[in-house]
Amino acid sequence: MADLQKQFLEFHNAIKLGTYEENDFLREKRDLIIDKLKSKLAERKDDGYPQYERSFNQGSYALNTGIKPVRTGDYDIDVGVLLDCHKEDYKPVELKELVADCIKHNNRTVEVSRSCVTVTYMKDGKPDYHVDLPIYAKSSNVYDDTYYLAKGRKGLAEAKRVWQAADPEGINSIINGLYKGNDTYEDNGSDQRKQFRRCVRYLKRWRHHKSVEIHSIGLTMAAYHWLEPGVDTQNDGEVLLELVETILSNFDYFGRLSINLPITPGGDLLKSVSDEDMAIIKERFETLRDNLQSAVNEPDAHEASKTLRKIFGDDFPVVDKTDKAKKSNEAPYVSTGSSA
Question: Is 133 helix (H, G, I), strand (E, B) or coil?
């Protein structure tokens, strides 16, 4: 069994995209669009426009699980916006249209999509990066502190233009709190959270490289439910293999996988995936499992790293044939694939 932890860490550093606080470019673009929205809403206050209350980071940047885009400039920034208004006073699409109108500009396109307002910035006539702005409001009920997400867009049936109860920052809390208070781990589970984030990033790059039709949140929640790091976290290949085995064991008799969202609004993140697409997803996971098993069991570091490069793409480093990489005399690793 070749020891490729060094290569996994190099791969992780190559694909890792840090938080807004670690990335001046992303922080600048996030602040630019929010400042524009705040000022335009303030200018139109006398016209009855709702006012900006607060914004908060969402998505992979907030969770610190982001990866660099495969295509140059294909950055996706997620910023939730809470407006100082009540959902009873606005239809959800109407409110998003007001927001879109405030941030229109000649160097960007603005589109009201089903779950957010999407702002795409152009460079040399091509998309450079885009900002997704989910828009939230609260209820007029003073006893209800729930955030409600404006869902829908023009052209959709009225039943799909709704205010959906949400807990947009809840996901940040559960991921950032993983493994804390577990006496098995040192330093409140800090190393285990780092390994969790590394494995999520590996899956995201695999998803892009192999065109797997699962959203990032689905992969993140699969890891949340089923990844089981050990005390020793210098074994990313084995832990990732165990995770993939467990994911496969959770496909049901009908060949479907359910990944539950543990916060409001809850539900199965893969509910809308067709049976045909689900079969392809399962096949992709099976191939990933087989390739990981082969790489983990391969005693030659050069050959093992070549297998992993097929999985993850050219950012995974190939060990030179002459490299005296560590080799283990242990028996081949066999995943138990325990279910959760």
Answer: strand
Length of the chain: 340
Distance CA 8, CA 19 (A): 21
Is the full-model pTM beyond 0.70? yes
What is the rounded CA–CA span in Å between residue 96 and residue 116? 8
Tokens found for residue 263: 């916060």
3-state secondary structure of 110: strand
Please state, in angstroms and rounded to a whole number, the distance separating the CA atoms of residues 291 and 287.
6
Q: How many of the other CB atoms lie within 10 Å of CB of 234?
A: 14
Query: Is 137 part of a structural domain of the chain?
Result: yes
Task: Please give the Cα distance from 4 to 7 (Å, whole number).
Answer: 5
CA dist 129 → 103, 111, 121, 194, 310 (Å):
15, 14, 6, 27, 28
Q: Is the separation of the CB atoms in 214 and 282 below 8 Å?
A: no
- How do residues 172-192 score in pLDDT, each as one tens digit? 999 999 999 888 888 989 999
| Judgement on whether residues 157 and 180 belong to the same structural domain of the protein | no
Cite the beta strand spans of 22-157 per DSSP E: 51-57, 75-86, 108-112, 117-123, 126-133, 135-138, 147-150
Q: Are residues 164 and 198 in the same domain?
A: no
pLDDT digits (tens, 9 = 90+) for 187-212: 989 999 999 999 999 999 999 999 99
The answer to whether residue 3 sits within a structural domain is no
Asked whether residue 220 is assigned to any structural domain, the reply reads yes
